[in-house]
Amino acid sequence: MYAVRKMSVLAPLLAVIFWSTGAWSMQFNVVDQNGAKLANAVVSVPGASVSAAAAGTAIMDQRAKQFDPYVLAVSQGQKVEFPNSDNIRHHVYSFSSAKPFEIKLYKGVPGKPMPFDTPGLVVLGCNIHDKMVGYIYVSKSPVFGVTASDGSLALDLKARPSTVEVWHPDAKNPQQPVTVAVPADGSDPLVISVDVATAKLATSHRH
Ligand SMILES: [Cu+2]
Fold first, then answer.
1. Residue 60 and residue 134: Cα distance in Å, rounded?
2. Do residues 26 and 155 lie in contact, with contact meaning Cβ atoms separated by under 8 Å?
3. Residues 103 and 153 in one domain
4. N or C: which end of the chain has fewer CB within 10 A?
5. Which range marks the domain in which residue 77 is found?
6. What is the CA(105)–ligand 1 centre distance, in A?
7. Mean per-residue pLDDT for 96-119?
């Protein structure tokens, strides 16, 4: 009798311990309005916290006259380095209010990694190659990720969130992420649909 009662107390206690250790990975699948898998979608969890130390330097490379990755997500305050892996020079710039900057014509790895301190979207261009477009999504929340080519993403969470924020470069309003309610029914993976438009965000050329 005692043993049974002990178990009934212990089981929920163990569940609480398990959840609070954060040993849980929630799966997401991002699709467009037609159900097609969406790569390069950023999913972040507003209000989430992590105990880990600040993230290391992120890399936005340039390969074959393209930014690599096409979409890079970083946490607020994280530094980004812009190595140029091509054998030609690039001139990287952004006019986005979250981080206006330029790295004038260069090859190799430019001086210091740059901090991205303001949450928001930073659209990248190259002054030499107009077709080069890339995105840095500066996340206010430290819990975020970018979907793989099959639209999938896993995030380590301490608890099931009530909402997530989703952003995609082809979204109908790419200036802002969309807030999506997370049903409490336990559905995992969570399928998130994003309305995309064919028109892409301009890089705001002023040259
Ligand atoms: Cu270039």
1. 9
2. yes
3. no
4. N
5. 58-139
6. 8
7. 94
* Full DSSP string of the chain: -HHHHHHHHHHHHHHHHHHHTT--EEEEEEEETTS-B-TT-EEE-TT----SPPP--EE-EEETTEEESSEEEEETT-EEE--B-SSS-EEEEE--TT--EEEEEE-B--SSPEE--S-EEEEEEESS-TT-EEEEEEESSS-EEE--TTSEEEEE-SS--SEEEEE-TTBSSTTSPEEEE--TT--SSEEEEE-B-SSPPP-----
Is 132 in the same domain as 193? no
Is 30 inside a domain boundary?
A: yes
Residues 118 and 63 in one domain: yes
Q: How far is the CA of 115 from the centre of ligand 1 (A)?
A: 22
For ligand 1, the distance from its centroid to the CA atom of residue 133, given in whole angstroms, is 10
- Token look-up 């600040």 returns 54
Among candidate residues 139, 162, 187, the one where a domain is terminated: 139
- Measured in Å, residue 59 CA sits from the centre of ligand 1 at 16
Report pLDDT digits (tens) over 13-35: 444 444 455 557 999 999 999 99
**Torsions phi, psi for 64 (to 5 deg):** 50, 45
Smallest CA-to-CA distance from 26 within 155, 135, 119 is with 155
- More confident call, 18 vs 69: 69
Token pair in block for residue 33: 């309005």
User: Does 93 lie in the same domain as 151?
Assistant: no
